[in-house]
Amino acid sequence: AIVAGAGTVLSGAGEALHRLARLLAAPVATSLGARGIIDTRDPLSIGTVGGYGAPPANEIVHAADCVLVVGSHLGDQPTLDWRVPAPGTRIVQIDADPAEIGRNYPHTLPLPADPRTALEALAEMLAATPRDDAFARRAADRMAAWRAAMAPHFASDAVPIRPDRLCAAITEALPKDAILVADTGYSGIWTATCVELAPPQTYLRAAGSLGWSFPAAIGAKCACPDRPVLCFAGDGAIHYHLGELETARRLGLPLVVVINNNGGFGQGLPNVRRLQGNRPGNFAEIIRFGPTDFAAVARAFGVRGIRVEDPAAIAPALKDALAHPGPVVVDVATDIEVRAPEPWIPEEHR
Predict the structure, then answer these.
(1) Most buried one in 72, 112, 244, 250, CB count within 10 A?
(2) Rounded to whole angstroms, how far apart are CA atoms 133 and 189?
(3) Any idea where the domains of the chain sit in the sequence?
């Protein structure tokens, strides 16, 4: 299997990565920072690996006899706290920074090099080498089964709206050259598992700071004025930088802010509820808030605001927002009880 990290993106190595993956018949997982470097619907793509990924990626990387790591330092998040790949797995690591190689996994074969240059050289060396594609076929079958299980959620007409239904609509609405900026927490998990991407679309994710996505989306639009920019944030995250609506309006930036508005911090809800147990008090006091009509808030800033409460209205709202010549807030009322896909954990660590 192959694990591609953000260094692969910085190197512009997407085509070289895809070519080598086809030659090796190797399933490709990515960190959050490399999501979309190859088409996420490609038969060799197995999604995001680690703590923010859907189950198949962790299962497949954990089962691999050898993992080629490209442009990733193999930190705690893409390795599920260094459990995927399994300790002792043979690893070949390509990185432009030699200090990153073998830092978190011992017995790593080092290939210090620019990722694109190294991948292109490996492809030339291995071009005529026959490969068994049985592992890749098993991986593709596992991905197909997971997608089939998720399909009813992607098409759900439930109210409040399921976040995975919202993500499916974003997949369909995103222009081919769009930049998707996702916040951390559940915004990162939902988009990294349920929004499909393909080059030249770009995925930018928050590196740990809640609320980062909206000002980052403003920055992305300033840097790439000719590309559509869509920000995906929860209501908890958007509160951190809500005042930047004035900035977006003043600069006249045509960007879309989609708010997954569930009235609380959805990711932490089960843990807070569990910790409360049967003790006196109301756990909702520390994790629930609102309700807030962010479309109305946007209009108070002089920004276009669209409120969505019906799943059938998501697609028209996104189409309208992406065509608007200025900033637009699409405030989507979602169900806080719906859980995002959870990562597969190796049996020995459960």
Answers:
(1) 72
(2) 30
(3) 2-142, 155-333
Per-residue pLDDT of 312-336, as tens digits, reads 999 999 999 999 999 999 999 999 9
Mean pLDDT throughout 107-128?
96
For residue range 6-52, what is the model confidence (pLDDT) as tens digits? Answer: 999 999 999 999 999 999 999 999 999 999 999 999 999 999 999 99
Is the dihedral angle over the CA atoms 64, 76, 146, 317 positive or is it negative? negative
What is the DSSP pairing of strand 28-30 with strand 90-95? unpaired
Kindly list the strands in the beta sheet with 256-261, ordered across the sheet, starting from the edge strand earlier in the chain.
Answer: 202-205, 179-182, 229-234, 256-261, 328-333, 304-308
CATH class for the region spanning 2-142:
alpha beta
For 107, the token pair is 């017995």
Our separate counts of H helices and E strands in the chain read 13, 12
Largest CA distance in the chain: 69
Residue 104: CA atoms inside 13 Å, Cβ hemisphere, count?
18
C-alpha span between 27 and 67 (Å, rounded): 10
For residue 130, whether the previous peptide bond is cis, meaning omega lies within 30 degrees of 0, is no
CATH number for the region 155-333 comes to 3.40.50.970
Q: What is the pLDDT of residue 284?
A: 87
pLDDT in tens, 8-19: 999 999 999 999
Instruction: State the amino acid at position 315 in one-letter form.
Output: A
Query: What gap in Å lies between CA 117 and CA 169, rounded to an integer?
Result: 37
Written as six digits, the tokens of 41 are 């619907």
pLDDT band at 106 (very low <50, low <70, confident <90, very high): confident
Structure tokens at 80: 């599920």
